[in-house]
Design a protein that fits this description.
globular, mainly alpha
Length: about 100
Amino acid sequence: MKEIYKKVINAVSEQTGVNIESMIHSKLEECVNARAILVYSLYKCGFSDLITSRFTGLTRQGVNKLKNTFDNRRKHDYILSMNFQRVINELSTSNLLSNRL
């Protein structure tokens, strides 16, 4: 699971341009969006809220909120939607995701 986490967080960082430290800790909108992409991508890879929480250091409740509000964020934020699509394409190419979306 650690290897999958590393690949996902690196893909999100690369595609969004947000460094890993900022992705987890910053309150800037672009960092929160990258964090939401990370959480949702991990969810799509089969990570539970608890496991995601342990890997990221976020609270389980925080992980759950980011996951549950992601679809609404995606509908209203074109940049987030495009970044998410690029992350998903990269993860699919790496065979980390099947056609679960």
